[in-house]
Design a protein that fits this description.
Blueprint lengths: L3 H14 L11 E4 L7 E8 L3 E4 L8 E5 L4 E12 L1 E5 L16 E8 L2 E6 L2 E6 L18 E5 L2 E8 L7 E3 L5 E5 L3
Antiparallel strand pairs: 1-5, 2-5, 2-13, 3-4, 5-11, 6-7, 6-10, 7-8, 8-9, 11-12
């Protein structure tokens, strides 16, 4: 079970790390100090495949070195960089989304947990249940999620920061290099 306090903490971080502006479809949304799946915990993680360590959370930043399969590294925090997805409201929203304007598009940001995602409409971030992919509502659509038509799916990139080897370096979680700690297992 994903604790309500953790959901609120993540939501609070999202609200205070997003500039109050209108984003275009290609602007990045960055959620800082987050671990993006239920029961995700930072700490000592196993290196399951040799992987590059970057100076900054950016694939084009300088490579500081490589982690070696079999090692353990201390991971202290993370960031999720998202190109927001875009959705159009086509039905009666889930109760969590009743404050959204049905005439405006919704930007789908980060998955928070327990079926909820952060979405942005205008300069306000909301915590709602919403479909995140086009496929999600094609087969056996769930009314609690499929009150939108997903026009563009969000594109997420998770980065984690190391505090031991290559202190302060960043590893992209797009590759299977590190095994994240799951406190629920």
């Amino acid at each position: 079970m994903f604790p309500a306090k953790r959901i609120w903490t993540i939501f609070t971080i999202l609200v205070f790390t997003v500039p109050p502006c209108f984003a275009t479809e290609q602007e990045w949304f960055t959620a800082k100090n987050v671990c993006p799946f239920e029961c995700c915990t930072y700490g000592d993680w196993l290196v399951v495949e040799d992987t590059a360590v970057h100076e900054h959370p950016d694939i084009d930043s300088q490579i500081l070195g490589a982690l070696v399969q079999g090692d353990t590294v201390a991971v202290t925090t993370g960031e999720v960089h998202v190109v927001p997805g875009i959705a159009r409201i086509i039905g009666r929203p889930h109760w969590s989304a009743e404050s959204l304007d049905s005439e405006q598009k919704v930007e789908i940001l980060q998955y928070i947990g327990e079926g909820y995602s952060a979405v942005r409409q205008g300069n306000t971030i909301h915590r709602v249940k919403i479909a995140r992919t086009k496929q999600e509502c094609l087969e056996n659509p769930k009314p609690g999620y499929c009150w939108v038509e997903v026009l563009e799916e969000p594109e997420s990139h998770w980065w984690v920061r190391l505090s031991s080897t290559f202190q302060g370096g960043w590893v992209s979680m797009q590759s299977p290099g590190l095994k994240a700690t799951d406190a629920c297992s």
